[in-house]
Amino acid sequence: MRKEIKFQGVVFAPIAGYSDVGLRKVCAMRGADMTYTEMISAKGLIYGSDKTEDLLHTTDSEKIKCVQIFGSEPYFISKAVEHKALEKFDVIDINMGCPVPKIVRNGEGSALMENIPLAVEVVKAALCVGKPVTVKFRLGVSSDKIIAVDFAKAMQDAGASALTLHGRTREQMYSGKADWQKIAEVKNATQIPVFVNGDIVDVESYKEAMKTTGCDGAMIARGALGNPKLFSDIKGIDVENYSLKDDIFMHLNTMLQFHNERYVSANFKKQLAYYCRGMRGQREIKLKAFAATNINDIKEIVETYF
Predict the structure, then answer these.
(1) Residue 12: half-sphere exposure toward Cβ, Cα within 13 Å
(2) pLDDT tops 80 at residue 2
(3) pLDDT in tens, 226-237
(4) Active-site residue numbers?
């Protein structure tokens, strides 16, 4: 029996290299209503890439499990969503906003914003398994090519259940300021739920983003890195005797349930760089983290500094 999905609330974003199974679990435990894997290549999944499979682990703590896939060929999208590895996911999200040049050159990610008819076919292909399909995209290619409203309407008409809009153009990458007002225009022009994404880093920016856009929910990305308690803060959940160290170890130990120690020690260093952000001695912590050679080194850093 499939879950009834309510596209609202505050959700944890798909962030390449960061939205691993451990951090998704911690964010869910701290209040995230939905959690997304980092983006998965449709072709990589079909062709049996071990690296792709490594990104698809989940835990029962995740309330609504969302997998984000990317690709530009409807055939491969339909085959990917039918893949056995995606059966456990409640929602299929299509990435149509990634600005990374190698993705764009392949006609994927934000390149689909320049080919609305193809983007429509990609969404229709993903609907074949009967799960809700959502789309994450940007305002447009550049400041003189803002197409968010037209694109959103096309995705809605194609059958998307909800939209997430990052308030920057592809040209901006991750610089500059997210334009929440333009997200409001998309919300006002569509009938399906819309999530605001971009520059939500604390309770105040969350409230301002929601007030400005009138959106149904917010997707938190970099603001949650190193600070999963942000979800509890936004939702007004009082976490008694909160310990960041406990969250870090939950994250780390969850990773160890699914991956070998070498993989975890190599990948956890960048997470520690966010966990120590703003702390006294953060430079020393980062240096020690990136010098760590095994999982015991990582654990010792957490015990010593957190």
Answers:
(1) 37
(2) no
(3) 999 999 999 999
(4) 98
